[in-house]
Specification:
Largest interface: A-B, 39 and 40 residues
CATH class of the largest domain in chain B: Alpha Beta
Number of domains of chain A: 3
Distance between the termini of chain A: 26 Å
CATH class of the largest domain in chain A: Alpha Beta
Number of domains of chain B: 3
Protein name (chain B): FAD-dependent oxidoreductase
Protein name (chain A): FAD/NAD(P)-binding oxidoreductase
Pfam families (chain B): Pyr_redox_2 (PF07992)
Oligomer: heterodimer
Pfam family, one (chain A): DAO
Radius of gyration of chain B: 22 Å
Helix content of chain A: 25-40%
CATH architecture of the largest domain in chain B: 3-Layer(bba) Sandwich
CATH topology of the largest domain in chain A: FAD/NAD(P)-binding domain
Largest sheet of chain B: 7 strands, mixed
Structural class of chain B: alpha/beta
Shape of chain B: globular
Shape of chain A: globular
Number of helices of chain B: 8
Number of helices of chain A: 12
Strand content of chain B: 25-35%
Distance between the termini of chain B: 57 Å
GO molecular function, one term (chain B): oxidoreductase activity
CATH superfamily of the largest domain in chain A: FAD/NAD(P)-binding domain
Chain lengths: 460, 413
């Protein structure tokens, strides 16, 4: 049995980013996850924002890594075709208390190294956000806050890692870890793995895995966030992210455009015990309706296209918990909350630093692949169905299967046969958007299933 | 290079309304007609409704959905239309229309446009029903696509949500797929479809009818394990176990193209606002079928297509069509929509001489009242009940006494 230099447990956005970075070194890397796809846990259901980090707690590791990650992922998105739109955000104050908090937030942003926030009068807020409900008292602009596709980054990172030779071991549920003097054995549902180092990027399961190494330093509480996604016909209502102002009354919700051309409202915040409770709730919908009707009354005139819930890995710790234990050849990457999408590449960079300190040689790999070109699934970019050149070369790119999202048979085929292929409808939807649209598979669900079955048979 | 499809009439949507309109125009006029159909095959919803009940009013026969669909396609092709499948209109601002097909991108240059894009069932998220997101949550459309077009399988025990005509269509399809319908859940006091259909359906399939209930939650992690329902009157809740749940009916027209072209919608139907000739507020753009009455049966949609085609024929010859300021026709509760939404004495009656309406509650002996500016224009008791879940038809003649210079006409029961 081969012994990997590094085994990363957890193929979410953080684990795949670390795998990508280490795959560019002269190291053998394994990336392990219990799911059948990368980015299939908390990473797939978040608010899809590339954060400047203006509101982080100054001086924290999170503040530093979000700020650095913003730049790194922004560049990587441009190279790979991850949909990213630099929309900007406005924090809107609805109460005197919130209004009073805005100057402090601006100061905090400066402490975090972000100096482009501006205080806005109510008139300026409505000029920027004409569809906002009545009653806004003022605002704070964050011109660099951006929206991003939450799914493509994990897939791009994993693709690059695999193309550089990393072993992607999906459907391998980790059941235990035994730390030996030179090697660690990772027991999984798919067999044992031997590795020198283990990196714990297990998200919601990071605390459990951490205990395998003899620690008891934190507990992950799944914090459920429910979101509503509105029809694309609502998209003209809004072209910026509207953020709530933190106040004593609790955190409000945001309303934001998505890179797929929808409008999103949420999230709720509810601490749970069940780490699999990704169901939406009556209470959540009620809360979002009451908030949304005030924020943007016209929103509910449009249809809700979909609703989903994500679980943030909330920890009883005010910062990211990233720590190396050289004696056990173990790195914990825990407490990465919703900012992890933004900071993912900076976390990977930081973990590399910890490994180097721990004595791991990080020689650049002699031959590395270029960053992969990802399928373009952003609404405001040129999509395959619009491209005469692509269709002329391959008519499958002119055969629209998912009408609502204009996804072609060529894209579905590509998703099923790519380096990190889709294996089910969820995987197809995250790579192409098929079935994610307003009809929710009324027209295309059966055709998409047939594509999956056909490719499945061919590969058997 | 983008090519151009040139035609006198471009019909968007090759279902019963679009195909019948195309056949009518191609066989009775010299117009060049192109039908743009995004599916692999034309025929619309009947293609995958593999049971009897089609073609009664338009073809004077009683046939299955797929046979009916094939016949509509064959007739249209025989009449000489240019039928383009796998051709989807991807953008239209009212003038510039672009399509994508496996042969490339093309611009459409047509004198008249008929929108016949149909309607779809509201999926579960649009009904804002919370719970988990397991496999096995379907609409009738997806169910019938799976079973009849792709010969796939569904589960073993289903709950069907809704009591419309289409709900029984779902029950029949489930039976054919070897899936037992455990329960039919409707928020109404009785199923909304025809009494005869209900009796027949109950006798044939014996689903447990759960009336006066609404679904409050979908349960199950990977696969549906059940739905939680609530008795609306009492708030009492229970779980119905199943591995498949089909959300039926609750139609919404596929109005996206109409909206992208800036066409005024009817606030009731959410389809384009049309006059009895099928004209929208955009010159040369007409609408027909379930896009304007979401939804009626396929044969009624087809006859609507034929009716609108006759208006289009007149439009193409430059024949004078009444250019008047029409009076809005508005439905009061329990009407959720009425169409056509515009009246003028110079207008010929709409298709089949009927106003089509939809009601939210059952009225056994409907007495239709038409009022204008506080004055009763007509009052008529109709011999058929008004029932939620299917179209309630009112003779156009109830509007006969309306003042063309007066305010909106209000219909009530």
């Amino acid at each position: 049995m081969t012994t990997f230099d590094i085994t990363i447990i957890g193929a979410g956005v953080v684990g795949t980013a670390i795998a990508r970075a280490l795959s560019r070194r002269e190291l053998s890397v394994a990336l392990v996850d219990s799911a059948a796809d990368v980015g299939d846990g908390t990473s797939k259901a978040n608010t899809a924002i590339l954060h400047t980090g203006f509101d982080a707690k100054p001086g924290t590791l999170e503040s530093r890594l979000v700020s650095r990650g913003y730049a790194l992922l922004g560049d990587y998105a441009a190279q790979t075709g991850i949909p990213l739109e630099r929309t900007g955000a406005v924090l809107v104050a609805w109460t005197e208390e919130e209004l009073g908090n805005l100057p402090g937030l601006r100061e905090k942003a400066i402490e975090n190294g972000y100096d482009r926030c501006e205080l806005l009068s109510a008139e300026e807020v409505y000029a920027a956000l004409p569809s906002l409900g009545p009653g806004a008292l003022g605002g704070l602009s964050v011109p660099d806050e951006s929206i991003i596709c939450p799914w493509t980054p994990s897939i791009a990172y994993a693709t690059e890692a695999v193309q550089n030779g990393a072993a992607l071991l999906l459907r391998h549920e980790v059941r235990g870890v035994e730390v030996g003097p030179d090697e660690t054995t990772v027991r999984t549902s798919g067999g044992d793995l031997r590795t020198r180092w283990v990196i714990n990027a297990a998200g919601l399961g990071a605390d459990v895995l951490d205990r395998e190494f003899g620690y008891g330093r934190f507990t992950v509480t799944p914090r459920r966030g429910e979101l509503l996604v509105f029809d694309k016909l609502a998209s003209s209502l809004l072209d910026k992210i509207v953020l709530p102002v933190p106040s004593k009354l609790g955190k409000g919700v945001l309303v934001s455009p998505t890179v797929y051309g929808n409008i999103m409202l949420g999230p709720t915040a509810q601490d749970l015990e069940d780490k699999t409770a990704t169901n939406t709730s009556e209470g959540g919908f009620e809360f979002l309706r009451s908030k949304g009707e005030r924020l943007m009354p016209q929103l509910f005139e449009e249809e809700v296209t979909t609703a989903y819930a994500g679980l943030r890995a909330a920890v009883d710790h005010g910062d990211y918990l990233i720590d190396a234990d050289a004696a056990q050849r173990y790195v914990l990457v825990g407490g990465i909350r919703s900012t992890g999408l933004t900071s993912s590449m900076a976390i990977a960079e930081h973990v590399e630093g910890l490994l180097r300190e721990g004595g791991v040689r990080l020689e650049p790999r002699v031959e590395v692949v270029d960053p992969p070109q990802m399928p373009m699934i952003g609404e405001r970019f040129l999509r395959p169905y619009q491209r005469e050149d692509l269709i002329a070369a391959d008519p499958e790119y002119g055969r629209i299967v998912c009408f609502c999202e204009r996804v072609t048979a060529g894209e579905i085929r590509d998703a099923l046969t790519s380096t990190v292929p889709a294996v089910d409808r969820g995987g197809i939807s995250r790579r192409t958007r098929a079935t994610n649209g307003r009809c929710q598979a009324f027209y295309c669900g059966a055709a998409v299933d047939a594509c999956i079955a056909t490719v499945g048979e061919e590969s058997r | 290079m983008t090519t151009t499809i040139v035609a006198d009439v471009a019909i968007i949507g090759g279902g019963p309304a679009g195909l019948t309109a195309a056949t009518e125009l191609a066989s009775r006029t010299s117009a060049d007609v192109v039908v743009l159909e995004r599916e692999h095959e034309a025929g619309g919803i009947p293609r995958h409704s593999d049971h009897l009940g089609y073609g009664i009013r338009d073809k004077r026969r009683f046939t299955t959905g797929p046979r009916y669909a094939r016949r509509l396609v064959d007739e249209a092709v025989a009449a000489g239309i240019d039928l383009r499948t796998e051709t989807m209109v991807t953008s239209w601002d009212g003038t510039d229309m672009l399509v994508t097909s496996p042969t490339g991108r093309a611009r459409v240059d047509a004198t008249a446009v008929i929108l016949a894009t149909g309607a779809r069932e509201r999926p579960r998220p649009a009904r804002q029903i919370p719970g988990s997101r397991p496999a096995g949550v379907l609409t009738t459309g997806e169910l019938q696509n799976i079973v009849h077009l792709h010969h796939g399988s569904v589960g073993k025990r289903a709950v069907v949500v809704g009591g419309e005509l289409v709900s029984w269509s779902a029950v029949m399809t489930l039976k054919e797929a070897g899936c037992r319908t455990e329960a039919l859940v409707t928020r109404h006091a009785s199923p909304e479809s025809y009494a005869a259909f209900n009796l027949g359906g109950r006798a044939m399939f014996r689903p447990h009818l759960v009336t006066g209930h609404r679904v409050v939650q979908v349960l199950g992690r990977h696969r549906v394990e059940g739905v939680e329902v609530e008795e609306i009157a009492t708030g009492r809740r229970e779980v119905l176990e199943c591995d498949t749940v089909v959300f039926t009916g609750d139609w919404i027209p596929d109005h996206e193209l109409a909206r992208s072209a800036g066409i005024t919608l009817d606030p009731g139907t959410r389809g384009p606002l049309v006059d009895p000739l099928g004209r929208t507020d955009r010159d040369g753009v007409f609408a027909a079928g379930n896009l304007v009455h979401p939804v009626d049966t396929a044969d009624v949609a087809a006859l609507g297509g034929q009716h609108v085609a006759r208006s289009v024929a007149r439009f193409l010859t430059g024949e004078h069509l009444p250019n008047v300021s029409a009076v809005p026709v508005v439905g009061e509760a329990p009407f959720s929509w009425v169409t056509p939404g515009l009246f003028h004495p110079q207008f010929a009656p709409p298709a089949r001489g009927r106003i089509e309406t939809w009601v939210d509650e059952f009225v056994r002996v409907p007495r239709v009242t038409a009022r204008q500016d506080g004055r009763v224009i007509s009052r008529r008791t109709l011999p058929w009940p008004a029932s939620p879940g299917r179209v309630f038809r009112i003779p156009w003649s109830v509007l006969a006494g309306a003042d063309p210079n007066g305010g909106p006409i209000h219909l009530s029961l």
